[in-house]
Amino acid sequence: MAWWGKVIGGTLGFMMGGPLGALLGSTIGHQFDSGLKSGGFRSIGAKLEQTQAAFFTATFSVMGHIAKADGRVSAHEIQAAQSLMDQMRLSDDQKKVAIELFEKGKAPDFPLDSVLAQFKTECHRQTTLMRMFLEIQIQAAMADGRIDPAESRVLRHVGTSLGFESGEIEQLIHFVSGASTAGGRAQKAQPISEAYKILGVSESASDDEIKKAYRRLTNQHHPDKLVAKGMPEEMIKLANEKTQEIRKAWERVRDHRASQQ
């Protein structure tokens, strides 16, 4: 929570303005907002905390924007946002800020493109970090078991704005949907088709291709690596859950193939 303490304490050189700085500044309150108006707080060596604050701000505000894409925010979508806050074990103050950011994202004049452009810059174009961000947005959009066409359009716009190709976005949707289904399955054997979907490979893929896909996904979702690159440490549980689902899918495919020999 080092980044949060620096935000509240006014010592984080966060954004020096920009849409993300304005969103977080107006949400935190007068002390932070005053610092932005005076040209921004200056802090040496705060790049990591700055990226973490940007990730937090973009996550909840964009989530609110996507939730409102179809014209209304469902109870499932609100629950998804609250569930994410619970998983992150946010403090009461952090939850208040996250909820306010979610509400700001629902506004008709929410500057989505500007927010995404600045977020991409603050992430220093690190693909694994932006991929995790997009996965969280997809997971929230699927809170009611499906992705509404309007939400799908916004999700794809978010993905392309962050530099992902349409095929990559589709693969991420398959990955998240497979992991969500597997995660909600209680004590039942995971269907082999879902395991392949999570790994992002076809059932005709070679053993080497499957092993490479498993290693690549594990590396992309490694919690310590993501936090080191700027994912808020509060989100480490999300990364851990994804690595567990990836491992389960790999073991399911491995065992299934072994039984077929």
Q: What does the model show?
A:
The chain is an all-alpha fold and 261 residues long. The chain has one domain (2-260). It has 14 helices and no strands. The chain has helices spanning 2-9, 18-28, 30-37, 47-67, 75-87, 92-105, 112-122, 127-141, 149-161, 166-183, 192-199, 207-220, 223-229, 236-260. Helix 4 crosses helix 6. The longest helix has 25 residues, at 236-260. The termini are far apart. Residues 30-45 have low confidence and may be disordered.
How are the secondary structure elements laid out?
Blueprint: H1 2-9, H2 18-28, H3 30-37, H4 47-67, H5 75-87, H6 92-105, H7 112-122, H8 127-141, H9 149-161, H10 166-183, H11 192-199, H12 207-220, H13 223-229, H14 236-260
Helix pairs in contact: 1-4, 2-3, 2-4, 2-6, 4-6, 4-7, 4-8, 8-9, 8-10, 10-11, 11-14, 12-14, 13-14
Summary keywords:
mainly alpha; 71% helix
Brief summary:
Helix content is 71%, strand content 0%. With 261 residues, it is mainly α. The longest helix is centred in the last third of the chain and has 25 residues, at 236-260.
| Helical fraction | over 70%
Classification by helices and strands: mainly alpha
Order of H and E elements:
HHHHHHHHHHHHHH
Mean pLDDT: 84
**Biggest β-sheet strands, sense, barrel:** none
**Rounded radius of gyration (Å):** 19 Å
Strand element count? 0
